[in-house]
Amino acid sequence: MTPNLLLAGADGVDFMIHGVFKYNFLGHEVWITTSHVCLLIVVVCLLIFFFIGGQVFKHAKAIPGTFQCILEFVVEFLDGITEGAMGKKGRGFRNYIGTLFLFILFSNISGLLGLRPPTADYGVTLPLGLITFTLVRINEVRFNSLWAIWKDKCSPLPWWFPLWLPINVIGDVAVPISLSLRLFANILSGTVMMALVYGLLSKFAYGWPAALHVYFDLFSGAIQTYVFCMLTVTYIGSAIGDAEEPLLKKAFKKVFTKQETTTQTN
Amino acid sequence: MEFNENFILGCSAIGAGLAVIAGIGPGVGQGIAAGYGASAVGRNPGAQGKIMSTMLLGQAVAETTGLYGLLIAMLLLFVKPFTH
What we know:
The structure holds 2 protein chains of 2 kinds. By secondary structure, chain A is mainly alpha-helical. Chain A contains 8 helices and 2 strands; from the N terminus they run E-E-H-H-H-H-H-H-H-H. Chain A has helices at 34-58, 66-86, 94-109, 122-143, 146-153, 165-200, 209-240, 247-265, and strands at 19-25, 28-33. Chain A has a two-stranded antiparallel sheet with strand order 1-2. In chain A, helix 3 (94-109) runs antiparallel to helix 7, helix 4 (122-143) runs antiparallel to helix 6 (165-200) and helix 4 (122-143) runs parallel beside helix 7. The mean pLDDT of chain A is 86. Chain B has one domain (5-77): F1FO ATP Synthase (Up-down Bundle). Chain B has 3 helices and no strands. In chain B, helix 2 runs antiparallel to helix 3. At the A-B interface, helix 6 and helix 7 of A face helix 1 and helix 3 of B.
């Protein structure tokens, strides 16, 4: 009996990541896998998209063509996401959210082209979650004083009784894990489903699996992309809190306005 | 105690089946969210876009627990952590 007992009679089912090319890196065996190849294809497609988009916007017309319309819709949509959650402060995050959105969307949709979606690899989604986590923590320190952060971390109880602190910290650390696992598991489940349909029904799977692709790749992928970006923006917004502008900027402004008032009195 | 590998694989399959029972909870929760979303749209059709996005966000977050169950099942079936 082989370990493949559980998939006996299902030799066609294949949704695993395969190694393509093996090399030695500092004495370790490292593989270039299908994920890397799909990632490369997705990134090249994105680069072409961005290049054409840049050319179109350089020669933008008052009456937009189809492609310009699509681009303007995308930009307005991303603006809506960031400014809806953070107001005017959100403008600085448009670039990151835009990149994230298009990258995850293209990755999820790449299942339509017969690629294995790169986001169905935990090695791709965990870094995305970690980037979000870093952004959240950096912006928390940028916009709030350490004293305010400490009070927030002990929040349901008063600041001199930090019983709730570990639970709040665990909640913060769980953010990137749950974000990345959500995206990973959703896309992986779609990939597994499609692999099962194609693998087990090899003779009968003609044409009609397109309907399943619409759900598992397009709908699920788009929803998960939206959710990832929305949650990123929400976490950053809640970490910033009510602060209007970064602390350093505020301090600079204070100093300069004082100098101006002193010069005026002189 | 030493177990037969087939026994371990069979128990893993049973465990995977039990793990995806976790899908019940998110199903109920998403249904409730969708129902309240529908009633909210009925009460205030003008706010359909906002209700829709809030509902989808909440549903996606609620889905996470079910997906954890799915992941456990996948690990048991395909990574086979208990065999050697």
